[in-house]
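Q: For a teaching handout, I want to show students what a protein-ligand complex looks like in token form. Below are the inputs, and the small molecule is pyridoxal-5'-phosphate. Please produce the holo structure.
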Amino acid sequence: MERARTLFPGGVSSPVRAFRGVGGEPFVVERGEGARIWDVDGREYIDYVLSWGALALGHAPVPVLERLDDTMRRGTSFGIPTELEVELGELIVDRMPHVEMLRFVSSGTEATMSAIRLARAATGRDIVLKFDGCYHGHGDSFLVRAGSGVATLGLPNSPGVPDVLASLTVVAPFNDLDAVEALMRNHSVAAIIVEPVVGNGGFIPPDPSFLPGLRSLCDAHGALLVFDEVMTGFRIAPGGARERFGVEADLTTLGKVIGGGLPAAAYGGRRDLMQHIAPVGSVYQAGTLSGNPLAMAAGIATLHVLTDDVQQRIAKRTARLVQGMREIATRCGVPFTADCAGSMWGFFFRAEPVRSFADAKASDVEQFKRFFHAALDRGVYLAPSPFEAAFMSSAHSDMDIEETLNRLEDALGETLNLSRA
Ligand SMILES: *Cc1c(COP(=O)(O)O)cnc(C)c1O
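A: Here is the structure, written as tokens, with pyridoxal-5'-phosphate included.
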């Protein structure tokens, strides 16, 4: 880390990795296998961050490695169409039929930036409506009340984003339809972009009426609905938010799981909208490594293994872990709330359920920090911020979960003794 800090700001390639949200030094990882990772000092951790949700099958899954090996021997990049893009595209559309047409890019940030460009072009409007605590990558339009990384660092907005651009983004509290309606009346909104289940402000599920309400408001005001499923895609249900909540977005962004641990992301949706994209239409968006063969191969191998049955099994284990944590908190007598959707989960030290980012910030952040470090000391790696979701993979066994719960009970007990001392 000392060498890294002379080279990279904070010693990291992405801010949350520096552990500023919890204090202390980040560990340096050496390798991973299944549900576990090992640091360069030989310490073992059960991993619930999983490359921030990207690894649905855990670390180094054999089917992905084999497909990568086979693919890389034929060349790693061409910048010419390949069959692999078609194969992964079909696997996605098969589970998400409302994504009638899509475009591959290399990061979630690119996917959301491009989706918003498209929404602005298609509607002829400039304003984007987002939600407090939702993160949609680091594009200029989205670095307004952007949750986890930004909140952890205490930066409300980012310098370097011109005011004129930031002024085109309006922000409502998550789960607050009245606030959305008021903004829609006063602004000519091109698109509402939302994490259907928030992961980047901590785990915050939508109220039952929230997503249907957004759909109706978009229809009433001629705006497009963009579901940012970079995190929720292939996690909250095989078909994503449409399957889980019965609400269909006009545009959907994907990333993380669809790249199987390599850089792949996508945006897509209604065919009439996607036909605005160059070269069919005039909305320009391009990428040298877009649809990269290795990234496509990892995504294909991942989605082949991640059948509906497998996703259900992971979801059951996730629910078991969350229930176990609630029981531990009750036994320890500490205010606590935890929830999950599919293989995505999270918790807060707060008695009441968390419905918005304001609620999340009202949780006991100091208790979280103590708990995070006590868990890490016992070999359980949780996200190093109170405002991040956690994940589960197909590699996490029932035994891993029991072991995790034992270690977490011990960890929680220790932090409570400390805080009383
Ligand atoms: C991770 C994430 C992004 C950004 O994706 P990157 O690949 O990190 O650029 C965008 N939206 C959501 C919901 C995310 O979780």
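A: Two things your students might notice: Residues 308-332 form the longest helix (25 residues). The two ends are 32 Å apart (CA to CA).
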